Amino acid sequence: MQSIKRINTQKVHRACILFFALSFPVGSLASEITFPQQERLIHLLKHDCGSCHGLTLKGGLGPSLLADRLAGLPRELVVNTILYGRSGTPMPPWKTMLTRQEVEWLVDYLYSGEASDN
Ligand code: HEC
Fold first, then answer.
1. 16 lies in a domain?
2. Distance, CA 51 to ligand 1 centroid (Å)?
C-alpha cells in the first residue's frame, strides 16, 4: 500500500514522454503502407493478378479489375474475395501472402482508377 503512495511522479512523467515518443512513429508506420510495400503490391497486381485478370487488368481468365467495373461491387466483397479466394473457381486466396491491410490498400488503389493508367 505504502509503495503506491510513493510513486515518483517525475519518473512516471519521463516514462509517459518516452511512451509517446516511441508509440507515435511506430503507430503511424503500422497503419500505413510504406512506399516499398506499395511498389511490391503494384508489381504483384500486374504480374500475379495480371496472369489471370490480364496484364492491363481488363480481364482474362478472371474478370476485369478496372475501376469502372469494380464500382458496381461492394468493397468488402472485393476485399474478402482477394483474402479468401472463391472456392470452386480458379481465384486463389491471398491471405498467406498479403495482410488485410495490404489488401485494403490494393482495393483502394483499384477503385481509385490509378491501376488503369499503368
Ligand atoms: C489463377 C488465376 C487468378 C489469379 C492469379 C487471381 N485471380 Fe482473381 N479471379 C480469378 C477468377 C477466375 C475470378 C472469378 C471468380 C468467379 O467466377 O466468381 C476472380 C475473381 C476476382 C475478383 C472478384 C471480381 C468479381 O467480379 O466478383 C477480384 C476482386 C479478384 N479476383 C482480384 C484478384 C487479385 C487482386 C489478384 C491478385 C492478388 C487475383 N485476383 C489473382 C482468377 C484469378
1. no
2. 10
